[in-house]
Design a protein that fits this description.
Rossmann fold, 7 helices, 285 residues, alpha/beta, eleven-stranded mixed β-sheet
Length: 285
């Protein structure tokens, strides 16, 4: 049975047809994830949902324990992660209510730990193509099939938050060629790559940020209104997409760590080996 992780809001697991729903508390070498994982079965697929900000949205983007979240998914056997994220649009053509499947990221965060490695073991994985193309194509096709207005590709800039951008920042990001702006997909995507999990984002456009002449400023109330509509569509897309994912992975995500660990094996401490064993067991004996 294939196992697919969904990271997003706490309401995403309210999908018709889910069976064997149970909450699972997972402890990781990096502490506890944002909340208990919700494990369930949809047809022949195991789904594992994780509310990124915790139930009730109690964690700031910078307070999320990203390493624990991704490691918990790895521990429970997840091989694909669909990240559902609210974003602001930086392009006129991406209107509120539209969906974007980004294929590039700019990490503009400042205080987040973005790797499982360090403390005596060094690895450099490639992030040239930071999402799984196979999974992204599936999300795009599922979005089309469900009648969503969807844009394939584009750059997602991740800012630290929790404040929204200033007008000067918003204008700068547009000059960089950014398509959408959010606060949560980094270091999530980097850690998923280190964990050799296929990762792709279903970005839900909720507003035009503050660059647009129609937006005097970004309003949480307006965002929630559009997001509620988007989540309804996101659940339909997820339900369709999981049936399209093949059991056997054939992408490069499955061996992202191969040839990436640069530290001599004989100097890696027993503690480091134990902490990273789920990630490195194929490469460090």
């Amino acid at each position: 049975m294939k196992t697919i992780g969904i990271i997003g809001g706490s309401g995403l697991y309210e999908i018709e047809g889910l069976e064997h729903v149970e909450n699972i508390a997972v402890d990781t070498p990096w502490g506890e994830p944002s909340d208990e994982l919700v494990s369930c079965v949809l047809d022949d697929t195991k789904l594992v949902f994780l509310p990124r900000h915790g139930r009730g949205h109690k964690l700031l983007p910078s307070e999320i324990n990203y390493r624990a979240n991704i490691h918990a998914m790895k521990q429970i056997g997840v091989e694909w992660i669909i990240s559902v994220s609210a974003v602001g649009s930086m392009k006129e053509r991406i209107a509120p209510g539209h969906i974007v499947i980004p294929n590039q990221f700019i990490d503009n965060t400042k205080s987040r730990i973005s790797t499982f490695f360090g403390n005596g073991i060094v690895a450099h994985v490639s992030m040239a193509d930071p999402v799984c193309n196979s999974l992204s194509n599936i999300l795009f096709q599922a979005s089309l099939d469900e009648g969503a207005t969807v844009h394939m590709g584009g750059t997602y800039i991740c800012i630290e938050g929790p404040q929204f951008s200033s007008r000067a920042e918003s204008d700068l990001y547009r000059r960089w060629g950014v398509d959408v702006i959010g606060m949560t997909n980094m270091p999530e995507a980097k850690l998923a790559r280190e964990a050799e999990i296929c990762y792709s984002t279903l970005a839900l456009s909720t507003d035009y940020d503050c660059w647009h002449e129609a937006n005097e400023y970004v309003s949480v109330g307006d965002i929630i209104k559009i997001l509620t509509q988007n989540v309804t569509m996101a659940k339909k897309i997820i339900k369709r997409a999981v049936t399209m994912i093949q059991t056997e992975r054939k992408c490069n995500c499955i061996n992202a760590l191969e040839n990436s660990i640069i530290t001599s094996h004989d100097v890696i401490s027993a503690d480091a080996r134990d902490k990273l064993k789920i990630l490195i067991k194929e490469y460090i004996k």
